[in-house]
Automatic annotation (TrEMBL), chain A:
Name of the featured protein: DUF5777 domain-containing protein
Residue ranges annotated for the DUF5777 domain, each copy included: 44-290
InterPro entries (alphabetical): DUF5777
Native species: Leptobacterium flavescens
A Pfam family hit: DUF5777
TrEMBL record, chain B:
Coiled-coil intervals: none
One Pfam family from the record: YceI
Native species: Leptobacterium flavescens
Keywords, sorted A to Z: Signal
Domain Lipid/polyisoprenoid-binding YceI-like: 32-175
Gene3D superfamilies with a match to the protein in the record: Lipid/polyisoprenoid-binding, YceI-like
Signal peptide (UniProt feature, chain positions): 1-20
Protein name: YceI family protein
Amino acid sequence: MKNNRLYIILLLFLSGFYSLSAQDLLKLIEQEQKDTVLYTLATFKATRIAIGQSVETRKKGVLEWQFMSRFWNIPDRRTQSFIADKVSARIGLVYGVSDRLSFGLGGTTWDGIFDGFLKYRLIWQRTDKKGAPFSITLFQNASYRSDSYPNITATDNFRNRLSFTSQLLIARKFTPNFSLQLTPTYIHRGSLLFPEDRQNLFALGLGARYKVNNHLAVVSEYHYLTNPIRAVDTFDAFAIGVNWEASDVILQFYLTNARNIEVGNFSTQTFNNFNFNDGNLHFGFNFTYVLHLKKKR
Amino acid sequence: MIKLYTICLCFFLATVAVNAQTRYFTKDGHISFYSHALIEDIKADNHQVLSVIDTESRELAIQLLMRSFTFKKALMREHFNENYVESHIYPKAKFTGRIAEIKLNDTNPYETEISGTLSIHGVEKEVSTKAQVRIEADKITLSGDFNVVVADYNIKIPALVRDNIAKIVKVSFELHHKPYK
């Protein structure tokens, strides 16, 4: 009799094993699911946060067409200008040589600055909780000022018109909605408007993005200059605005005090502070169109 | 009496042993989807689909990672994950269901019905579709396609891109299963 009971228990035990449900199959699949490397997508939407570079690079074979503009007024002037007294626009291209390396160039109307740059994604944040907790992109540009300075005593040969900016773009996507970027910047300026000007300057940029919904994000940037030039008062560049994107288009609207569009210039040569007075408040608008030249398959 | 139990026990042990061979499995199944809209057509492929069939109970489970879908345009992949299926919150799509008929000894392809629960973007829905079954040697192939109404899974398409993305996308599957281990 005792034996009987043992057998029954054994039978029940085994039949428990026997019953296979879809849940067991899912469990089996779960065990077989191999870990895939997941690089963080879209820390920022565009290759610019608003005025400054973001950690993002373009994928291989992607050509990005950028139109960036600033509008502002000249204070206390009786003006008949349409919309704004002054307009500056930069037309530029960014091309993804590989998924990590991007190349870009552009020209700006107001200050006559032409610039070219390379961006390389050194470290890519991963969302699968392995690998790096943040992304690092290296940025190096060279810019040429085609306009001459009004100061006739300043030396103004080709070498003086060049300037170089190196940046370490360090960003982390903390949550799907919130990203933060720190940008240590080194600027070497060939141009010396006044002999007192410094040639080597260091700045620290801080940028953030908060996604309001799947297509709209609020962004802000602040570029702190550690050793401003001495001849004139300069202010740190600040911007606040929104990014909107859908399909192949990214639109960025923002308010800023930076007139220059090229990074080395707006970091060091912003002569007005951010406030709502005429002449200080600049409206910025970036239009980016993304074109896929190489399509997979 | 004990003899009877012993026979039963042997039977169970035998079926348990056989059980292992009733499971057919793949981890490189192919699922693609196709969206046909006014402005553009979007096609995405996933070649890392996991699927398991239990021929005894005719049950089927399929799972894939949303991030593993590849698109023609790099930006489409980013938008798909970031803006539409929100793969950071809902990384996987799952299906559990039952195949109406499995004719293990029939090498001729035949059509049958698969019905069950499809889970995408955190929303579970009952679905059923016709599927082709082909059994050769030790391989079970399931293939077919069905339509998915994007709005059913709480995936919102903004009005501005309504001509870029179809409201109904066609999902195709081709899964070649082999005996599990």
